[in-house]
Amino acid sequence: MKIYNFEDDPLAAVPNIDEQYMQEALKLAKRALAEDEIPIGAIVVANGKIIGKGYNLTEKLNDVTAHAEMQAFTAAANFLGGKYLKDCTLYVTIEPCVMCAGASYWTQISKIVYGAKEPKRGYSTIHDKILHPKTTVISGVLEEQCKELMTSFFKNKR
Ligand SMILES: [Zn+2]
């Protein structure tokens, strides 16, 4: 029997920071699921510190704008005491919608990392120039786990 030795794996010594932060966003998505909200979670990170968290609250707040990203942006801006999130990264489990991508433009956020694509309302399906020109994007981080939460949520709704 072959036993895999992780200590010999050079990649094991380099933890994937994006995956670690996405795990935090996934925890928030699971909290949303537990509260019967669409399971999307988001965090904002600056200098290795989580400065804003959010998850979808549209049902609880009766507010169509209460998306995870909007909560996280507001929390991060409150933390920083300023509206711009220039040296920050947004981690969100699902591709932002047009509204949240538009809000991210106004924050001038440096980077957006998302899990799974949103084929219906994801900003990139509508227009890929909604983001701020200085915002870089990474997609597909923990994609399957992010997508699975959404799939199981909507399966239970039918
Ligand atoms: Zn949104």
UniProtKB/TrEMBL annotation:
<keyword id="KW-0862">Zinc</keyword>
<dbReference type="InterPro" id="IPR028883">
    <property type="entry name" value="tRNA_aden_deaminase"/>
</dbReference>
<dbReference type="InterPro" id="IPR016193">
    <property type="entry name" value="Cytidine_deaminase-like"/>
</dbReference>
<comment type="similarity">
    <text>Belongs to the cytidine and deoxycytidylate deaminase family.</text>
</comment>
<comment type="function">
    <text>Catalyzes the deamination of adenosine to inosine at the wobble position 34 of tRNA(Arg2).</text>
</comment>
<keyword id="KW-0819">tRNA processing</keyword>
<feature type="domain" description="CMP/dCMP-type deaminase">
    <location>
        <begin position="16"/>
        <end position="126"/>
    </location>
</feature>
<protein>
    <recommendedName>
        <fullName>tRNA-specific adenosine deaminase</fullName>
        <ecNumber>3.5.4.33</ecNumber>
    </recommendedName>
</protein>
<dbReference type="InterPro" id="IPR002125">
    <property type="entry name" value="CMP_dCMP_dom"/>
</dbReference>
<dbReference type="Pfam" id="PF00383">
    <property type="entry name" value="dCMP_cyt_deam_1"/>
</dbReference>
<keyword id="KW-0378">Hydrolase</keyword>
<feature type="binding site">
    <location>
        <position position="67"/>
    </location>
    <ligand>
        <name>Zn(2+)</name>
    </ligand>
</feature>
<comment type="subunit">
    <text>Homodimer.</text>
</comment>
<feature type="binding site">
    <location>
        <position position="100"/>
    </location>
    <ligand>
        <name>Zn(2+)</name>
    </ligand>
</feature>
<keyword id="KW-0479">Metal-binding</keyword>
<feature type="binding site">
    <location>
        <position position="97"/>
    </location>
    <ligand>
        <name>Zn(2+)</name>
    </ligand>
</feature>
<feature type="active site" description="Proton donor">
    <location>
        <position position="69"/>
    </location>
</feature>
